[in-house]
Amino acid sequence: MVSLSFKGPAEWYAPNLIPIQPIIDNYISLFVPTNPIGGSYFFTSITEPITRPLINSLIAAGLGTIFAVLVGFLAAYGVSRYRAGGTFVIFFTLLTRMLPGATFVAPLMVFYASIGFIDTYVGLILLYTAVTLTYAIWLMKGFIDEIPPEWEEAALLEGATPWAVLRKITIPLTKGGLVASALFIFILNWSEFLFALVISVTQVTTLPVQISKYVSAVGRMYGTMASLGLVATIPSLVLGYLIQKHLVTGFTFGRVR
Amino acid sequence: MKRIDRLSQWMGKTESFKKLSTLPLNFVLNFVLIVPFAIMIFLSFTRWEPLSGYDWWHASIAGVPRFMEAFGDARLLWALIRTTIFVAAVVPVEFLLGLGIALLFLGDFRGKKAFTSVVMYPMMMPWVVVGLGFYLMFQYYGPVNLLLLKPVFGEGGMIDWFTNTVLAFFAVMIADIWQWTPLMFLIIYAGLAAVPSRLIEAAQVLGASSARIVRTVRLPLIKPLLVVALIIRGLEAFKVFDIVYIMTRGGPGVNSTEVVSLYVYNLSIVYHNTSYACAVSLLIMVAIALVTRLAIRPLEAKRE
Questions:
Q1: How many Å is the maximal CA-CA distance in chain A?
Q2: ipTM of the complex, rounded to two decimals
Q3: Does the pLDDT value for residue A16 go beyond 50?
Q4: Which domain holds residue A91?
């Protein structure tokens, strides 16, 4: 894919792995799609540049992550320390992870259509928050469990309020874990495809949705497709590299570390 | 556990905090999951479609619940069978490959650390990009044909992957295996590395061969872990949607690679058959909830 993204149309069907004439036109055409590469034979029905989907992806994944971390941290803390919500929360969050997202599509579309959330950032971000909350709670619960409760107990005996304990003791101690969870959730949101596909019409198209448009578009822009794929992958790989150690924990719900 | 109990007892006065801490969670879950869920149950008893011309809350209950239709739906049955085949093919392969690589990695060699970090990259990649990558690889003039099949079998050995119903599904499986074998490898490797070395040494002193140590000492010790890995991966593989959508979109031919997720998606988005989609979704959800309930048992046992 890397090799293809630097190849001109003439070389798209050639077996050589290293391009004879490396070009960056593929990347340029992502941003200026009206300027087709390789003459008029290779055209595409896609006319919008990827700037918009790129920014949309950043907004949706970023805000979705922030909300999931905020809500998830509180819930994880409650579950870990006070057994809030009992086993129901645990089972419920696990279940939402196991259910195929597609089974939520039909009722969600009906619901979103009746409250006007289709093709809006609010709708997409809220959805991302809900979907990744499971991961947020489980990951962060693991980090919180590692802190001895005695420390918090001591502070409470001194007369601190639970909120102060949270702010002064728990958050500073779990800072690293919180950042790791946030990055993990960002990667998930960044990759999310199904919900973005059904929610977005024109306004909130994210990068994965844009990729799917290229695959079904008129004109097989192989080089452009490859370069778009790489653009969408780079953030995941960079962030993923930073949280290598926590990646398996995240995917397996803290069962394996 | 005991410490926490004492703590929560002592914190009687922090009861309000306990409630507050899960309040935002409840809000989000109710709004995005419970409400649609209620709508889903209601609609699965009606014959409502977006094109019906009236709002969904005016829909009347149909005589026969819609999910009775699902039992006679051949397309759903085939999608289920196909998804089961997918899971049954992909998960064992990923498991065995992961196990094999993990066993190879027990020894020390140069570049091991670099490899364990490179091996993580497939898991981090967006699913759609993985689908795209393999879509490009399996094109007629793609690398699989030109670099692999042509040199070996000549011009006639080149295969048009995405027009053959079986081979297209095979290509999708390869993409999934490529992406998720690393997870299996990392789980199993972490488990194997955690086996206490004194057990291994004891077995060595007693003269056991290394193959025998693997079979009788290492593997039984990490068995719970292996079960967990298989369950998690199995349930995840059942959800497959993104790579199928990108690579084949259910084709070629008449829905030859349509998996359950894609069928439900098609029902609700492409055919606008909302109430039937709701009924099918509900059935699938109930089935998976039951399976999850059963599957959680070994997970819980491991936890304690």
A1: 76
A2: 0.79
A3: yes
A4: 54-206
